[in-house]
Design a protein that fits this description.
single chain, about 550 residues, alpha/beta, six-stranded antiparallel β-sheet, 17 helices, 15 strands, about 20% strand, elongated, DNA repair, DNA_recomb/repair_RecN
């Protein structure tokens, strides 16, 4: 509930502190005393749109502080917890408006955005009046109100889940169609590229190996002539033959040389062995470097083919195999596409059937709740002297969406046979007030957690009708907290707590103040409301009678 309201330098209020109580809180006062300023100030701290100029003349800034006492289960804490606030049994809203128009808001001494402030305030206070477009007169909220009245939260949740599932199934199908279309657009390319890569079948590392082989074969042509000359020099007509002749001649002479040639013969034998090994090495090199123009051509052809494909597909030569696998996967996806589309289309049909069934069940429940609400409204309108009025909750079909296929509108006909229409356009001022009150009585649950504010909702009614209005306000207040600005003595007499708004003139300014009334002062205030500024004993007696009624 709203525990207190502290207003400083707003319009014609210099400083005002109000402590509210549970139950029915009534504010009365002469026209122009400043009752609307209280609501403007409260609306300001709650972040509602209001007057552009709020700061009191001569003040640098205006400030309003509202303190609420809330249970931890109150919906406001769900909003605040998401914004990073920890629970506190006191919720303090503070908002400042400077002379140059800058507005700043705090919640529990932490600065917040206007968006968070408004999201919280929607769970705290609900204003109703003859020109209210925030609550019951807003047709966009009628469906939500009917769902709350009918206890349809669970059914709505099922429809929303079915809608999400349907949306996901549709999105998956559309994505699959898009993917298949894209693949089909490049099918010729994919199949040609895969065939080309499969025909070549490059291996990782093959590019480097072929390049090395090519270099070696190219080098063989250049060094082959020198190696052949070396082979010839080491051949029979060269060193090998000469060394053989020398060995034979020395062997013949060794028998007569008394062993002096043994060292030379041994050295010559070793030289011939080394020469033989050298010849073998040269021959091996000749074999390894054997130049075959046709083989070089084949090596270059494959090397250039691999590098050409790598350039064509903008990948490294060693990555051609992986690239080919990716292309094959896309072709497989294309080949699977038709089957996948069939499965996804079936999933969409199933999701649509589920949504249709849930939406149909919700529509039936809404129609039942609408009939129940219409019956409850007829019961409430009779004591409000509107027994001939007809209230109808229309549930009509609209485009399917997350909340079902229904559009809900509250319509009224003020007399049987009269045309019905939107509640805000058909009813007159006084009728509208009573329609709104009856609706609020029917729609408000015992644990709504809202502080309800009614701004002159009893205007245009009096006598027994005003008494009926007051008793319904009292009924609402028994479930929580109600603040009502009223000109009706019947309504004021039913208040649990009573304040009088007064305007006083100082030397320099006109100021508004609020005074809490005790029993004797309440009698005088209600008597004034009955008879005007001149209070008679008859008016006092009538006021006492209203207070004890």
């Amino acid at each position: 509930m709203l525990r207190s309201l502290d207003i400083r330098d707003m319009l014609i209020i210099d400083r005002l502190e109000l402590a509210f109580q549970p139950g029915l809180n009534v504010l009365t006062g002469e026209t122009g005393a400043g009752k609307s300023i209280l609501l403007d100030s409260l609306g300001f701290v709650l972040g509602w749109r209001g007057r552009a100029e709020l700061v009191r003349q001569g003040a640098a800034q205006g400030e309003v502080v509202a303190e609420f006492q809330l249970a931890e289960s109150h919906p406001a804490w769900a909003v605040l917890n998401e914004a990073g606030f920890a629970y506190d049994d006191a919720l303090i809203l503070r908002r400042v408006n400077t002379r140059d128009g800058r507005k700043t808001a705090w919640i529990n001494d932490r600065r917040v955005s206007g968006e968070i402030l408004r999201a919280v305030s929607e769970t705290l206070v609900e204003l109703h009046g003859q020109h209210d477009d925030r609550g019951l007169l807003n047709p966009r909220g009628h469906r939500l109100l009917l769902d709350d009245f009918g206890g349809l939260t669970g059914k709505v949740a099922k429809v929303r889940q079915a809608w999400r599932s349907l949306a996901e199934a549709r999105a998956a199908l559309e994505q699959a169609k898009s993917d298949v279309a894209a693949l089909r657009a490049e099918e010729d390319y994919l199949r040609h590229a895969v065939a080309e890569l499969d025909a070549l079948s490059p291996e990782p590392g093959e590019d480097a190996e072929l390049d090395q082989q090519r270099r070696r074969m190219q080098a063989a042509e250049k060094i082959g002539e020198d190696i052949m000359k070396a082979q010839q020099a080491l051949g029979l007509d060269g060193a090998e033959g000469n060394m053989g002749d020398a060995a034979r001649w020395l062997a013949d002479a060794a028998g007569q040389a008394d062993g002096t040639l043994e060292g030379a013969l041994a050295a010559l034998d070793r030289a011939m062995t080394e020469l033989s090994e050298a010849q073998s090495g040269v021959e091996a090199c000749i074999d390894a470097l054997a130049f075959n123009p046709h083989e070089l051509e084949m090596v270059e052809e494959r090397l250039f083919a691999i590098r050409g494909l790598a350039r064509k597909h903008d990948v490294l030569a060693d990555d051609l195999g992986t690239f080919a696998e990716g292309l094959r996967s896309r072709l497989e996806a294309l080949d699977r596409g038709a089957t996948d589309l069939i499965d996804l289309e079936a999933a969409v049909r199933d999701a649509q059937a589920t949504y249709d069934a849930q939406a149909e069940a919700l529509t039936s429940a809404r129609r039942a709740a609408a009939a129940k609400l219409d019956k409850a409204m007829a019961k409430e309108l009779s004591p409000l002297k509107m027994e001939r009025a007809v209230f109808t909750t229309e549930v009509t079909e609209q485009t399917a969406g997350p909340d079902g296929v229904d559009e809900v509108a509250f319509t009224v006909a003020t007399n049987p046979g009269a045309p019905s229409g939107p509640i805000g356009k058909i009813a007159s001022g006084g009728e509208l007030s009573r329609f709104l009150l009856a609706l609020k009585v029917c729609l408000t649950g015992p644990q709504s957690g809202l502080t309800l504010i009614f701004d002159e909702i009893d205007r245009g009614v009096g006598g027994a009708t005003a008494d009926a209005v007051g008793r319904r306000l009292s009924q609402l207040a028994a479930q929580g907290q109600v603040l009502v600005v009223t000109h009706s003595p019947q309504v004021a007499a039913l208040g649990d707590h009573h304040w009088r708004v007064e305007k006083r003139q100082t030397k320099d300014a006109t100021l508004s103040t609020v005074v809490g009334l005790h029993e004797g002062e309440r009698i005088d205030e209600i008597a004034r409301m009955l008879s005007g500024d001149k209070i008679t004993e008859e008016a006092r007696a009538a006021a006492k009678a209203l207070l004890v009624a």
